[in-house]
Every structure is written in C-alpha cells, then in structure tokens.
UniProtKB/TrEMBL annotation:
It comes from Cytobacillus purgationiresistens. InterPro entries: PhaG_MnhG_YufB. The chain crosses the membrane at residues 12-33, 45-64, 70-91. This is Multicomponent Na+:H+ antiporter subunit G. PANTHER family: ANTIPORTER SUBUNIT MNHG2-RELATED (PTHR34703).
Amino acid sequence: MSISVTSEIIAGVLILIGTLFSFLSAIGLIRLPDVYTRSHAASKSSTIGVLFTLIGTLIFFLIHEGVFSIRLLLVIFFVFLTAPVSAHLICRSAYRSNVPLSDTSVKDELKEVLEVDK
C-alpha cells in the first residue's frame, strides 16, 4: 500500500469516528432529560466529533493533495474555545433561572451555598 492509500484510510477512519461521536451527541440531545445533561452531550461529544472529522480532513488534504490548511486549525481552535464556554454559560443561566433538575435524588450543593450567602 502506498502512502496515499494509507493516508486516505486513516483520514476516512477519523472522519467515521467523528461522525459516530456527532451521531451519539444528537442522540444525547434527544434522549437526555434536562438542560444540564443535554448541554453535556452537546458540548463534550459534539466537540470530539468535530475534532476527529476536522483532523481527518486535515490529514487527507495534507498528504493527498499537499495542502496544509491553517483554516482547519483555526476552526478546531475556535470550536474548542467556544463549545465548553457556551455550554457552561447556558447551564449557569438555566440554574440561576431556577430550571429544575430532572432527577430529585441529585443533591444540589450549590443551592445550600447560595442560600447561606443571602
């Protein structure tokens, strides 16, 4: 096997893994019960899915066509920068707006701290 075929296989496998993670993220958004767990599914697994897909694309274009794309690196950087921050801010605003947790067996330790501060 030549280097070109090997790189295409590696890129294809990475893109497939990224697709699977993105699909799992979509299932998590549909199946999980509340905004807090949905935010977790949206930020963690979709970020990993985008990472694998873009790295696979970067490898393909780098080895197969000889093009190094700084745009792909910037997209990877900004996805890793914005996805966790936005998920955190969504969960924080939901918590401060008193959006209830889905499971009542979860102990809300932050609520006790916020009540002491008042």
